[in-house]
């Protein structure tokens, strides 16, 4: 078997930076919000595909901690779109056995939105199908910072000591603590950067970039990304030969 053709199976966790909504709208001489609305349609298609393929976790970057820097009008419209989509989709997600959670600093959101988030999470809490994670007012640095704060509180309370701080303890305090780390990261829209998404969690994730703008992203492109993922050899620091040997011994 060709080393680079080792079949890894489907990724358990796919993380996506959904980028390019604004440029998509601009190309069509339309306001940016139209691009964001079109982007929501793509989200629905991608979620459907992940349910069909029995992917365990799909994480979507919806609004970064830096996106507050955008014009107030766009920020407000994005909040309204988020709120409206949550309201309109939660029953459907629930019916499809999807567990929804929102990661990020939600204290900055309008109270009505915060309440909607809590109720959507509670409604879908017992679901055992796809874990749909929406990162909203999320930043990878924020996630690590809030983990450090939680750990420090435990140290101050005498529940932990400095030597108890290990990588796994830090992972356990991140917002994604009970989820596997992303196997496949996809960014649409042509930029090849992480933009402060899941910094800690992406340490060994396979990265996939596509120039397609998010509203034009579709199932076929997702299949391409998964195909590319499956063709890669994940070594996690080992040599390629070690990986081939261990996968041969597993198949024997
Ligand atoms: C991604 O699309 C969505 C959000 C960041 C909310 P953009 O709005 O960044 O689209 P471009 O990059 O300007 O095309
Ligand atoms: C990243 O996209 C955040 C989201 C998709 C929500 P941006 O468009 O904000 O990223 P930069 O500013 O180009 O790095
Ligand atoms: Mg962008």
Task: Give an overview in words.
It is a single chain. By secondary structure, the chain is α/β, with parallel strands linked by helices. It has a single domain (10-142, 181-251), classed as Decaprenyl diphosphate synthase-like (Undecaprenyl pyrophosphate synthetase), CATH 3.40.1180. Helix content is 45%, strand content 13%. It has eight helices and six strands. It has helices at 21-27, 32-52, 72-95, 111-124, 140-156, 167-172, 219-230, 240-251, and strands spanning 13-17, 57-64, 99-103, 131-138, 184-187, 206-209. A six-stranded parallel beta sheet has the order 3-4-2-1-5-6, sandwiched between helices. Helix 4 links the parallel strand 3 and strand 4 (131-138). It is globular and about 55 Å long. Residues 1-7 have low confidence and may be disordered. Bound molecules: 3-methylbut-3-enyl trihydrogen diphosphate (2 copies) and magnesium ion. One 3-methylbut-3-enyl trihydrogen diphosphate binds next to helix 1.
